[in-house]
């Protein structure tokens, strides 16, 4: 079913579906409190400091260009005076000087802007890298409740908004202020009374800026919020497009997107309105001032107190230049508001305190295990949400080289155990140890180097087969890649593909089957060759033929290392040393396959139920084949 395009202009209000309720609550961001530009600029300074030489060059040139601009009206006045006198040599002289001033100003402005944008681009690259590094250190709990699109917006749109400070020359405001002061002095020196006409407009301009200031900041804040929501929704829809199409929800999703898009459009309309008000009002005031000066000059002629025509030309040029920096300051002010609203959200993320724990002084006093201990949990309790424990007083030990299976119904807490071992989440009470040391005493990178993990939901990165198998290394060793694939019985499978080990892997491995992705994940774990292996539902996505192909390889993979195997398909774990049975967050049984069947407890019930289902499925398949 193909969705018909929805015209954004026809949307009146968000639909009463997900976009009108839960979706909005999930994607909308908290309102920010008061933030001051000076505080935000101070926080941006550490990223600018390493590139200070470019800023220094740019600032010096800004001042020099401002001085050259002050000279230009004087040269034009002299040019007009010589024209009145009919002196060709004077015309030529001042024409050449004016040309030199204009060309010199433009050339220096180019160098100045180039230096400023180099400083800005490098500083923003550093800020973006800092943001990415910070996001890597955030605890997984934060990602559980934060839309991906919002985080992407921080590192892209919001950083780009801050970069507009440099790209649009906002820092040229220094030159604008210097030029304004110089112009005021020159105007007063030339004619104090005519200067008052221009200065009388300043309160009007100030009132306009005051009116626009807070409204423009809020408008740009709204744009940042709507941008994040738009990106989050798009990310969700693209990732789930197969589900949207399978359930024929294209029209409904288009309607939800339309409501979000209209809000984003309206937020931009508000900012455009305030920017247009500021530009038009200042332009109008400037024109009225020039007209007033011309009227005053004409009035003085009628009054027989003539003002020299060259002076009028020079003065009107200064008035134009007077309102030029005023107008530019106003424009740059609106850009500053956009940049500061982006900076607010960037630093709001950087102020997030939910980071992964690092080893502290108390680590030395943490519990330790015996020399032969590989993994241990003692009285561990853990909750994803307060008051809803997923694990309750869980205890079990695994010796080095032992193969342990964790089984139980969905939601019993099996995968949570592996998350605690890797310190993807922090346990609330009890002790979690790896190779005899408490996990809290490890550096997180050092701890995770001890594990090879094969997850149920395999994530492949865009690249090649070799780069995905060797993702634990900076550069793939093709010989090791071949050996890892051979051990899982998949080398011939991938060598047959065009490109072999250098075959392209699309985003998320979309050009590979589920079974092929799982085989790459097995090879990835073997390539890393860590002492502890975690297999989390490792054969859940593999068909029966591929599973049979893997069984012999799995035994070779687990040989000589500690293995934790999480499996719903109990037929895959008969060869393990022990089985730990979870039920509602507790360990209820431990023993071998035969021992647990003899107990006729939770494991025996799971075993009988699963094999009854599998027998029925085989019978139905046989009847279908017949």
TrEMBL record:
<dbReference type="InterPro" id="IPR036640">
    <property type="entry name" value="ABC1_TM_sf"/>
</dbReference>
<feature type="transmembrane region" description="Helical">
    <location>
        <begin position="52"/>
        <end position="71"/>
    </location>
</feature>
<protein>
    <submittedName>
        <fullName>ABC transporter, ATP-binding protein</fullName>
    </submittedName>
</protein>
<keyword id="KW-1133">Transmembrane helix</keyword>
<keyword id="KW-0547">Nucleotide-binding</keyword>
<dbReference type="InterPro" id="IPR011527">
    <property type="entry name" value="ABC1_TM_dom"/>
</dbReference>
<dbReference type="InterPro" id="IPR017871">
    <property type="entry name" value="ABC_transporter-like_CS"/>
</dbReference>
<keyword id="KW-0067">ATP-binding</keyword>
<dbReference type="Pfam" id="PF00005">
    <property type="entry name" value="ABC_tran"/>
</dbReference>
<feature type="transmembrane region" description="Helical">
    <location>
        <begin position="170"/>
        <end position="190"/>
    </location>
</feature>
<dbReference type="GO" id="GO:0005886">
    <property type="term" value="C:plasma membrane"/>
</dbReference>
<feature type="transmembrane region" description="Helical">
    <location>
        <begin position="196"/>
        <end position="212"/>
    </location>
</feature>
<feature type="transmembrane region" description="Helical">
    <location>
        <begin position="91"/>
        <end position="115"/>
    </location>
</feature>
<keyword id="KW-0813">Transport</keyword>
<feature type="region of interest" description="Disordered">
    <location>
        <begin position="1"/>
        <end position="24"/>
    </location>
</feature>
<dbReference type="GO" id="GO:0015421">
    <property type="term" value="F:ABC-type oligopeptide transporter activity"/>
</dbReference>
<keyword id="KW-0472">Membrane</keyword>
<dbReference type="InterPro" id="IPR027417">
    <property type="entry name" value="P-loop_NTPase"/>
</dbReference>
<keyword id="KW-0812">Transmembrane</keyword>
<dbReference type="InterPro" id="IPR039421">
    <property type="entry name" value="Type_1_exporter"/>
</dbReference>
<dbReference type="Pfam" id="PF00664">
    <property type="entry name" value="ABC_membrane"/>
</dbReference>
<dbReference type="InterPro" id="IPR003439">
    <property type="entry name" value="ABC_transporter-like_ATP-bd"/>
</dbReference>
<feature type="domain" description="ABC transporter">
    <location>
        <begin position="375"/>
        <end position="609"/>
    </location>
</feature>
<dbReference type="InterPro" id="IPR003593">
    <property type="entry name" value="AAA+_ATPase"/>
</dbReference>
<feature type="domain" description="ABC transmembrane type-1">
    <location>
        <begin position="56"/>
        <end position="338"/>
    </location>
</feature>
<dbReference type="GO" id="GO:0005524">
    <property type="term" value="F:ATP binding"/>
</dbReference>
<keyword id="KW-1003">Cell membrane</keyword>
<feature type="transmembrane region" description="Helical">
    <location>
        <begin position="272"/>
        <end position="297"/>
    </location>
</feature>
<dbReference type="GO" id="GO:0016887">
    <property type="term" value="F:ATP hydrolysis activity"/>
</dbReference>
């Amino acid at each position: 079913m193909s969705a018909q395009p929805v015209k954004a202009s026809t949307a009146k209000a968000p639909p009463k579906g997900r976009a009108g309720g839960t979706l909005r609550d999930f994607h909308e961001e908290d309102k920010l409190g008061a933030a001051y530009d000076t505080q935000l600029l101070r926080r941006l300074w550490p990223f600018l400091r390493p590139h200070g030489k470019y800023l220094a060059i740019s600032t010096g040139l800004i001042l020099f260009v401002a001085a050259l601009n002050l000279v230009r009206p004087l040269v034009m006045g002299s040019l007009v005076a010589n024209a009145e006198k009919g002196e060709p040599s004077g015309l030529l002289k001042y024409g050449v000087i004016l040309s030199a001033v204009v060309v010199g100003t433009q050339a220096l402005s180019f160098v100045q802007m180039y230096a400023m944008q180099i400083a800005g681009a490098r500083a923003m690259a550093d800020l973006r890298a800092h943001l990415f590094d910070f996001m890597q250190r955030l605890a997984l709990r934060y990602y559980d409740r934060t839309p991906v699109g919002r985080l992407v917006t921080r590192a892209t749109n919001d950083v780009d908004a801050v970069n507009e400070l440099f790209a649009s020359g906002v820092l040229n405001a220094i030159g604008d202020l210097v030029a304004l002061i110089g112009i005021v002095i020159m105007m007063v020196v030339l004619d104090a009374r005519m200067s008052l006409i221009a200065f009388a407009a300043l309160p009007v301009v100030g009132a306009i800026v005051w009116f626009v200031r807070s409204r423009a900041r809020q408008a740009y804040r709204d744009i940042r919020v709507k941008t994040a929501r738009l990106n989050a929704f798009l990310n969700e829809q693209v990732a789930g497009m197969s589900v949207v199409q399978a359930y024929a929800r294209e029209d409904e999703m288009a309607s939800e997107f339309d409501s979000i898009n209209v809000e984003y459009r309206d937020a931009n309309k508000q900012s455009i309105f305030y920017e247009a008000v500021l530009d038009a009002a200042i332009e109008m005031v400037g024109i009225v001032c020039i007209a007033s000066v011309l009227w005053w000059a004409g009035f003085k002629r009628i009054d027989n107190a003539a003002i020299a025509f060259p002076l009028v030309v020079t003065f009107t040029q200064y008035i134009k230049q007077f309102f030029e920096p005023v107008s530019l300051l106003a424009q740059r002010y609106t850009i500053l508001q956009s940049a500061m609203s982006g900076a607010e959200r960037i630093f709001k993320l950087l102020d997030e305190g939910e980071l992964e724990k690092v080893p502290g002084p108390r680590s030395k006093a943490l519990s330790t295990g015996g020399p032969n201990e590989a993994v241990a949990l003692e009285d561990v309790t853990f909750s994803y949400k307060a008051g809803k424990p997923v694990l309750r007083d869980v205890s079990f030990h695994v010796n080095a080289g032992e193969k342990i299976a964790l089984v139980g119904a969905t939601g019993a807490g099996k995968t949570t155990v592996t998350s605690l071992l890797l310190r993807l989440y922090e346990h609330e009470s009890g002790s979690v140890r790896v190779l005899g040391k408490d996990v809290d005493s490890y550096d997180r990178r050092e701890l995770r180097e001890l594990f090879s993990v094969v997850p149920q939901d395999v994530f492949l990165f865009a690249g090649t087969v070799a780069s995905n198998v060797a993702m634990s290394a900076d550069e793939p060793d093709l010989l090791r890649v071949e050996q890892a694939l051979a051990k899982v019985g998949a080398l011939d499978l991938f060598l047959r593909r065009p490109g072999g080990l250098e075959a392209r892997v699309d985003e998320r491995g979309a050009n590979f089957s589920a079974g092929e992705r799982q085989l790459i994940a097995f090879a990835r774990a073997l390539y890393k060759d860590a002492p502890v292996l975690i297999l989390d539902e490792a054969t859940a996505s593999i068909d029966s033929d591929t599973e049979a192909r893997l069984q012999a390889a799995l035994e070779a993979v687990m040989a000589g290392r500690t293995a934790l195997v999480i499996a719903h398909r109990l037929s895959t774990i008969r060869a393990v040393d022990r089985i730990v049975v979870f039920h509602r967050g507790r360990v209820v049984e431990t023993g071998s396959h035969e021992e647990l069947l003899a107990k006729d407890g939770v494991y025996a019930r799971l075993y009988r139920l699963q094999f009854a289902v599998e027998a029925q499925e085989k019978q139905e398949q046989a009847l279908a084949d017949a």
